[in-house]
């Protein structure tokens, strides 16, 4: 497996697609740092004081988008590019049958290819986070605390697992479809559905199941919102966005978008305006983290089982 891993890493790092992705990472890092840090710096000069200004480098949208939003919507493309032709390309070139004719186990091939993609994804995510952190500290002059570094590290791990899910999905389609174009189209189509169409479908289904009218009571509104949240959680993009935002924003105390607050809760709410520490934030998003890890494991396990049982013939 180590030999396959080194070979795949060499192919990735010497390919044109890696150079394009590297340039994209640099451009996005400079763009996000420039827009966000200038806004934060102007807020500091106006007298705003927040001990968590460093984390705002990754959660503030600025004029375009934040890093969390960028990885949520465009991070899947990195995973898809790393794996949509990992298996069927070698089948079409005839190198897969030649490789299997050697004393090489099948599981070493699929494991090496998946791990090589994860290593490249890790390099990209760590690079963009370090670049934004370094440039941000230079521009705004704020040094992160140990807890903020721990949040950032957890966010990096979550992002790698999230993009790894899309890598496993693209690897699965690469095994199922012999055509490279078909596997790429299937992966991109799945990304478009879960990233864009799910948000539209949630409102339509919620309006049918629990319609809201002007005369409806609060219970109907809450029922409508529960339907929206249940359907939205079927999307990995939504799961990642909620988990990453909660981890990187200590002031966010829930993943819900609508809360029912009573009179006594309104009176006592002032006591809970302080930010949460990291263990409390992790406790809130623990179901999301477990779900993302489970989805990634399921995708790779399906690709592993199908590849181990698939018949491969030389052309």
Task: Name a few traits of the molecule.
315 residues; mainly alpha; 13 helices; 0% strand
Summarize this, please?
With about 325 residues, this protein is an all-alpha fold. It has helices spanning about 1-15, 15-45, 55-60, 65-85, 90-95, 95-100, 105-140, 145-175, 180-210, 220-230, 235-250, 265-270, 280-310.
Domains, number: 1
Determine the structural class based on helices, strands and strand pairing. Answer: mainly alpha
Tell me how many strands there are.
Answer: 0
Distance between the termini: 25 Å
Assign a percent range to the helix content.
Answer: over 70%
What count of helical segments does DSSP give?
A: 13
Strand percentage, roughly?
under 5%
Shape annotation: globular
- Profile the largest sheet: none
Global Rg = 22 Å
The low-pLDDT segments are: 258-271
H and E order: HHHHHHHHHHHHH
Can you give the mean pLDDT?
A: 81
